[in-house]
Design brief:
The complex is a heterodimer of chains A (397) and B (350). By secondary structure, chain A is of the alpha+beta class. Chain A has three domains: 7-94, no CATH class; 129-236, Butyryl-CoA Dehydrogenase, subunit A, domain 2; 253-385, Butyryl-CoA Dehydrogenase, subunit A, domain 3. Chain A is built from twelve helices and eight strands. In chain A, the strands form two sheets. A four-stranded mixed sheet of chain A has the order 1-4-5-8. A four-stranded antiparallel sheet of chain A has the order 2-3-7-6, with no helix packed on it. Helices cover 55% and strands 15% of the residues of chain B. Chain B has three domains: 7-88 and 103-116, Butyryl-Coa Dehydrogenase, subunit A, domain 1, CATH 1.10.540; 121-199, Beta Barrel (Butyryl-CoA Dehydrogenase, subunit A, domain 2); 202-349, Butyryl-CoA Dehydrogenase, subunit A, domain 3 (Up-down Bundle). In chain B, strands 1-4-5-8 form a four-stranded mixed sheet. A four-stranded antiparallel sheet of chain B has the order 2-3-7-6, with no helix packed on it. Chain B has eleven helices and ten strands. Chain B has helices at residues 7-23, 26-34, 41-49, 68-81, 87-99, 105-116, 202-237, 249-277, 283-308, 320-332, 337-349, and strands spanning 121-124, 129-130, 133-142, 149-154, 157-162, 168-173, 182-191, 196-199, 239-240, 243-244. Chain B has 350 residues and is an alpha+beta fold. The chains are: A alpha+beta (397), B alpha+beta (350). The interface between A and B is large, with 52 and 48 residues.
């Protein structure tokens, strides 16, 4: 067992520390302690994202010709960066649909001109993306989607509806899965199309979520015309392109360093309230700590697999399921630790940590459902991880 | 960065697993379970031949001078096989406590005997020693009915007592896990002079107990993994309503949830064993936290996977109950999850 990182990374570590010190004024705190006025939060998040990308900490391996730092993929360098950011309690930038999902997909499937045009502004937070996947009739069974695009000259004409579209009103762009070939089978007729959100014919209606944020939306398409060149990959390749992105979403939703920040915040609350002395609360806290520690070292095991180019098998499939539930349970204990104060929400007098605990408690439930529900994750773990058979298709009526 | 087992450790794991599969199969385990005494006399010598008894003993005494990582590997495979041996007591706690004894021929001979698999020494922590006498009853002593000697510990000091001398009364206790047995041991006011004083220290005892806790956690993890494995295999074969039952989400999700809980415990075990080997301060918190978490996860795993078998899961014929009971024993011995969480909390949070 060797958990050391090697002295060749000392220089990088120093560099990260110097960067964090030099940028203290803008650095966005990770964990429950950051909040306040929404537009200020947003402005600072975007500014921080710019600095991170320009300094090569966000999108570190993106080639220089697309504005990135062009570093070789190096999981240990990433670990050093993560460790330093975590110990400073600073966010590693936006884990958004644009930076976390669209850019990796575009790098893999996109045309050169698409990469030139879209990667840099996306990574700097100048182009904000939303994801057009789910539809009212297509949730867990995503491939049954029906929003369609018909070729008319050199344009696609899109009609249909997307739902659960996070951040659609703030977004400049959408990447969407759209049925372009009606007769090519369930998975075969889908294309991955990018479009500007100000294209005529797009109507966005906010959906209020349980957190009180209108972060979800319905997006309606009525004869929306986009250039045929807006397809990423080949027409009809959309299922492959779109599910490649989902793999990134699963990773994004399963990161454990935020979990440790929240766990530490929960300990702080129990200390402040004196409940850390209560055997009942201690027992609950230590139950969580066992899970937090197990997932922390599980991540090191997955990292080692990656370095050795070894398949982690079921080990990789369980991360989203476990960490989303763990984040939820940590928030639950923190709120119980606040007792009646736990009923307050953002903006209220007396609220602790800007209401982040209450918001994240509910948001974590959204993440248990989103990005492939916990139940779908269990199907995937059972089938791909344990080799259990799929559910047979129901006989045709 | 190379988190996990080294290649030699993987080879060790595979060779122990192979030996156990060939020589300590489930039929042999069942014979021992069904026997009155619960004793498998041959297993100690066999484990000695395989080098499994001497993993933590110095090379010049016939051991292989490896560490807790290797001992945890052995414990996990032994749990997976439900092998009839109190590995945590005889081959982790005993040799590590003895290693802290005063140097001398006696200590060396004892460790040589353990490494060979020819002597079975059972530690008794917090032994009833007072005012120069050994007087009192100790409960739940592993292997007591066939131990060659007891290694009595009080306040870190060690005393070796031959188990065959008069004035020791041993009553086997009926236990749920038939693969490992415990007994009540009564010392009838023996003169402490009947025992051999071996020195020792409280610090060494503390570390030895932490190592034994890691071994019990590893045993429980192995049992839970085996329980999951056999239930998944069953779910791939058994048909009801003209379907393989593993295709029902109700069954599939049980297996997936158990895997999701059990799999990360492996990493926590590796890390904890590594912290023990490295002499890290973290161990005072990690060892109890690991044992609490691992045995809790194991209890839930065997509870859920037993249900995959339906009615068969409740029978004596199905092997599932062997792993179910195994996890229950590992859970209670040397501190159960609730007690150990309090212990870990005291270290971390005062």
């Amino acid at each position: 067992m060797d958990t050391s990182i090697g002295s060749e990374y000392n220089e990088l570590r120093e560099e990260v520390r110097a960067f964090l010190t030099a940028n203290e004024d803008v650095a966005v705190p990770a964990g429950p302690g950051f909040g306040g006025d929404a537009s200020q939060v947003r402005a600072r998040t975007l500014e921080w994202q710019k600095r991170l990308f320009d300094a090569g900490y966000a999108g570190r391996t993106i080639p220089q010709r697309y504005g990135g730092a062009g570093h070789e993929p190096d999981a240990l360098a990433s670990l050093v960066i993560e460790e330093e950011f975590q110990s400073a309690g600073i966010s590693l930038g936006m884990e958004s649909q644009g930076t976390g999902m669209f850019v990796p997909t575009l790098l893999h499937f996109g045309r050169e001109d698409q990469k030139q045009e879209l990667i840099r502004p996306t990574m700097r937070g100048e182009l904000i993306w939303c994801q057009g996947y789910s539809e009212p009739g297509s949730g867990s069974d995503l491939a049954s989607l029906r929003t369609s695009a018909v070729l008319d000259g050199d344009e696609y004409v899109i009609n249909g509806q997307k739902i659960w579209t996070s951040g659609a009103r703030e977004a400049d762009m959408m990447f969407a899965l759209i049925r372009t070939e009606a007769d090519a089978g369930k998975h075969g007729g889908i294309s991955y199309i990018v479009l500007s959100m100000d294209t005529p014919g797009i109507d966005i209606r906010p959906l209020m979520t349980m957190t009180g944020d209108a972060s979800f939306n319905e997006v309606f398409f009525s004869d929306v015309r986009v250039p045929a060149t807006n397809v990423v990959g080949r027409p009809g390749q959309g299922w492959e392109v779109g599910t490649y992105t989902l793999r990134y979403e699963r990773n994004m939703l399963g990161r454990s360093n935020a979990t440790e920040n929240y766990f530490d915040g929960c300990v702080d609350i129990l200390r402040e309230t004196g409940l850390i002395e209560s055997p009942v609360y201690r027992d609950r806290l230590l139950r969580l700590e066992g899970r937090v520690q197990a997932m922390k070292y599980h991540q090191l095991r997955l990292l080692t697999d990656m370095l050795k180019k070894r398949d982690s098998g079921a080990g990789g499939l369980i991360v989203k399921l476990n960490n989303c539930q763990l984040n939820y349970d940590i928030c639950a204990l923190a709120i119980d630790g606040m007792a009646e104060r736990g009923v307050l929400k953002r903006g209220s007098k007396h609220v602790r940590d800007y209401g982040n605990w209450q918001r994240n408690y509910m948001y974590a439930l959204g993440l248990i459902i989103g990005g492939g529900t916990a139940q779908i994750q269990k199907n995937i773990i059972g089938e791909r991880g344990l080799g259990l058979p799929r559910e047979p298709k129901p006989a045709a009526a | 960065m190379d988190f996990g087992l080294t290649q030699p450790q993987e080879l060790l794991r595979d060779s122990i697993a192979r030996f156990l599969a060939q020589d300590v199969g489930i039929e042999r385990v069942r014979r021992v379970m069904d026997s009155e005494s619960g004793r498998d006399e041959a297993i100690h010598g066999q484990l000695g031949d395989q080098g499994i008894t001497g993993l933590l003993i110095d090379m010049d005494l016939g051991g292989s001078e490896l560490g807790m990582q290797e001992a945890a590997i052995a414990a996990q495979e032994i749990g997976r096989a439900a092998a009839p041996v109190n590995f945590h007591s005889a081959y982790v706690l005993a040799p590590l406590m003895l290693a802290g004894a005063d140097a001398g021929d006696r200590k060396n001979a004892l460790l040589e005997g353990i490494a060979e698999g020819s002597s079975l020494i059972t530690p008794i922590l917090d032994a009833p020693i007072d005012d120069g006498r050994i007087d009192g009853t100790v409960l739940y002593v592993p292997d007591a009915a066939w131990s060659d000697a007891f290694l009595l510990e009080t306040g870190g000091s060690l005393y070796l007592l031959d188990s065959s001398i008069s004035g020791i009364d041993i009553t086997p206790l009926e236990t749920v896990d038939d693969t490992r047995r415990v007994a009540e041991v009564t010392f009838a006011g023996l003169d402490l002079g009947a025992a051999e004083s071996l020195g020792g220290s409280a610090e060494n005892t503390r570390r030895a107990v932490q190592a034994a806790q890691i071994a019990l956690a590893a045993d429980a993890l192995g049992a839970a993994q085996k329980g999951l494995h056999i239930s998944v295999e069953y779910a791939k074969e058994r048909k009801q309503f003209e379907r393989i039952i593993g295709s029902f989400q109700a069954v599939k999700h049980i297996c997936a949830e158990v895997l999701a809980e059990v799999d990360p415990v492996q990493s926590l075990l590796w890390h904890t064993a590594d912290a023990w080997d490295g002499g890290s301060d973290e161990i005072d918190h990690l060892a109890p936290l690991l044992k609490a978490h691992a045995t809790d996860v194991a209890s839930n795993a065997v509870t859920m996977t037993t249900q995959v078998f339906g009615g068969m899961g409740f029978t004596h014929e199905c092997d599932m109950h062997i792993f179910y009971k195994r996890a229950g024993y590992d859970r209670q011995m040397l501190g159960n999850p609730t007690a150990l969480r309090e212990q870990a909390a005291a270290v971390m949070y005062g």
